[in-house]
Amino acid sequence: MAGLRFKRILLKLSGEMLAGSQGYGIQPSVVDDIAGQIQSAQQAGAEVAVVIGGGNIFRGLSDEAAGMERTVADYMGMLATVLNALALQNRLEQRGCHTRVQSAIEMMELAEPYIRRKAVRHLEKGRVVIFAAGTGNPYFSTDTAAALRAMEIHADVILKGTKVDGIYDKDPEKHPDALKYEELSYFQVLEKDLAVMDNTAITLCMDNKLPMIVFSARDPENIRRLLAGEPIGTLVH
To answer: Is residue 110 included in any domain, yes or no?
Structure first.
């Protein structure tokens, strides 16, 4: 595809996306669909890095973790992201995509340790890089990990795939009259408390002038359309 809007992207996905209609765990058909979208983006000429949450398996801040020491709960959530990363890697490799998982928590038998220069080299060689285990630190979400990794690899944009087609003033699945925003500043996201990402991630993006597009990952053509320059979802910058 000539004239890509973005050359290097960081795709941020929630763990819940991988659960699909099951609501919990990993639904293979959904993982395969996401792998297909990533493969399509790569075939179009984009360099693709991915950060996936772990909420489909364990969420450190959930009610189920109530009473558990926060640091332990957060580390368990980081390990859940590794399971998701390995599932996505498997599907991508079945499709013929060269893939590397880099983990912020060292586990040599399963993934490479996170090394920024190595990650950039993988991207330059046409490999999909999946960043697992968040930042490797408790009290930081995978949203913050996505913002941090995007800046470290000099991504052109964060593409945040969700279940809805952009940012709304309220939940569109519960409120039919919800208003969709076509474009927002990061300051407006914080001011309106829109909960697109946690405040740490939003502030990191704002301070470093890193744009983000929130879009529906349910449409298998959306990433390709975004790369082609079509106005999909909500632009935050």
So the answer is: yes
Range of the domain at 93: 8-236
Indicate whether 3 belongs to any domain: no
Rounded to two decimals, the pTM is 0.92
Task: Indicate whether 188 belongs to any domain.
Answer: yes
pLDDT at 24: 85
Q: Note the pLDDT of residue 62.
A: 62
Asked if residue 64 has pLDDT above 60, the reply is no
Residue 220 within a domain: yes
Domain count across the chain: 1
DSSP for the chain, written as a single string: --S-S-SEEEEEE-HHHHHGGGSSS--HHHHHHHHHHHHHHHHTT-EEEEEE--TTT--TTSGGGTTS-HHHHHHHHHHHHHHHHHHHHHHHHHTT--EEEEESS--TTT-EEP-HHHHHHHHHTT-EEEEESTTSSTT--HHHHHHHHHHHTT-SEEEEEESSSSEESS-TTT-TTPPEESEE-HHHHHHHT--SS-HHHHHHHHHTT--EEEEETTSTTHHHHHHTT---SEEE-
- The CATH number for 92's domain is 3.40.1160.10
